[in-house]
Amino acid sequence: MSISLSSLILLPIWINMAQIQQGGPDEKEKTTALKDLLSRIDLDELMKKDEPPLDFPDTLEGFEYAFNEKGQLRHIKTGEPFVFNYREDLHRWNQKRYEALGEIITKYVYELLEKDCNLKKISIPVDATESEPKSFIFMSEDALTNPQKLMVLIHGSGVVRAGQWARRLIINEDLDSGTQIPFIKRAVAEGYGVIVLNPNENYIEVEKPKIHVQSSSDSSDEPAEKRERKDKVSKETKKRRDFYEKYRNPQREKEMMQLYIRENGSPEEHAIYVWDHFIAQAAAENVFFVAHSYGGLAFVELMIQREADVKNKVTAVALTDSVHNVWHQEAGKTIREWMRENCCNWVSSSEPLDTSVESMLPDCPRVSAVLF
Predict the structure, then answer these.
(1) CB atoms within 10 A of CB 288
(2) Pick the catalytic residue: 293, 322, 350, 359?
(3) What span, in angstroms and rounded, lies between the C-alpha atoms of 138 and 302?
């Protein structure tokens, strides 16, 4: 069994505490002092000292994983499913590895949307300049010209991006369970145009520029000898601080800043933008939405902001475990009435499929979804 550096550092303290606690009441003060010492130790930072570098492959092949013919993620040598705890006692490192794999899978799903589903990647904002942050959505060739039917898909919150329902299901189950691809293929086969929203792509991250602080001694009237002495002290202080920071956090990641995408800075903004610039312009007489989790909230917000247009164009809405709340979102009576007639929320339940499930909110019917 391997013992981490952090465990070795803390072990004497724990032993000392155990010995003290076996003593009499006069030892309580020492116990309190040791507990205070432990409370000041940042265990998360301490654990980083045992970590290998946060340097992961940028391809599935580099991770030695691939999707098999059933759409399951399997190790290319052993055939085993994905293992999260690749290194024992290194939860943060394992999590970073999982996230790196997740980013690769996101790009893989994007490729499937274009190659397997024949969708087009459309950049937004539509009038974006070359230098400003951009996002994108996916559309079928006939999304805006299909005169009959248009299907719009909205995923939930978190790390998922266009074409995904749940990253966890993609990694641990299969592509059919975790992506929107089965919905897209069936919609296309049944004559629908398709638009896939990307509501979590709200900003790009860039490295925060380093701020160079000019020494105050440069512009002072102090004698040269005194300035040199102060500069020497300042350099020594910086050297000690840098050494301490390297010890405290050897795996410190780059400081990043977020540049938000114009008119798409939140899932709600994104839904409204795509409605105004694409869905509202579509030729389809009947528009259908499938919205999961936070996607349901985004749809309700869209309806609040574009009530007349939505009522005129949308035929039905299928929600899945939607987290919308007509009271908190202040949806009016006419919206609630429309939702009761045109929306249905499939929720996690142990009841048989489509069994009515009681709801405390006066909006749309809730029925049972199949639990896997």
Answers:
(1) 17
(2) 293
(3) 19
